Amino acid sequence: MLTAKMPGSKHATDLTPAELGFSMPAEWDKHEATWLGWPHNETDWPGKLDAIRWVYGEMVRKIGQGEFVRILVNSRSEARLASGYLHRAGADAARVEFIVHPTNRGWTRDSGPIFVRRGGRRPKTAIVHFHFNAWAKYPDWQKDRRVPETAARILKKRLFHARHEGRDFVIEGGGIEANGRGTLLTTEECYLDPKVQVRNPGLGKKEIEGVLRRYLGATNVLWLAAGPVGDDTHGHIDDICRFVNPTTLVMVRETDRRDINYRPLAENWERVRALRLEDGSRPEVIPLPMPSPLYFDGERLPASYANFYISNAAVLVPTFNDSNDRIALGILSELFRDRPVVGIHAVDLVLGFGSLHCLTQQQPI
User: Fold this and answer.
1) Domains of the chain
2) pLDDT at 121
3) Among the listed residues 283, 299, 301, 282, the one whose alpha carbon sits nearest the alpha carbon of residue 291
């Protein structure tokens, strides 16, 4: 018997993740795996690509102690190359899975699968496709954009295409920060600038928040101002402010008034006083120092201790051969009591205008 569809009702395939009970979990929730893209683009790390591969070896060694590591490679021969580096770095080969999917770059936080989860007796995960376009800056993104589709096919996960009024909606994983209870954090510099790296032309705060509510289950979206100079994403939150538990944030602070980052970061500290979590309470906000300025070829690099990654086995924190390394590691060690906090040398890594968090994407259980 055919049943007429009620006017205004939705077919099951038209329902958004939030309508189906999905939401974005916190990064510290248990992972099944971490996704990475093996580094191959010489333009990201001029003259340093070999050094970067050794950094990846250390990352995989640490992450693999607590979860699988799924690594995107351009070919089987690249997988063999990567295996050699990982073996010599002491990584557990049994914890590594190579996925042949050609990429433009390796910034998997932004181009990779963003997972949402539905709880209950039988938790279930799905993937939201946010249509990566190389931060609305570079012309080569077509291979990277297809990563969520490949992940959904391999993992047999449902794939939701984020859209607003029939148009693909663009946002990156590094541009949002979740506490797992409905609060998302982002910046106006990144997603509301009307002229620079505009991801979603014509959309304002109301429309963007609406998409985040529908596709990530956000109930509360908080906006900071801007990030440090040198970030070619134009203000990703993961260089600025991060949740370390549902009610506590760490946020970078520049104390040198002569530094170019002093004013924009100070504005974030002015704004944070007015921020409220999903239950109306104020978050606790703890300052993280900034390392001394780093430059490459005369250009300021976005070195930030906030670009840490929370894996099952450890919190990986970028370090910069700086006196503040010890202070930042100490602060984070006090906040993460359930897993060790480990420094990863990132002076070479940040030449690509990103660091540990930018390279990783968690797959929750």
Assistant:
1) 20-362 (3.75.10.10)
2) 81
3) 301
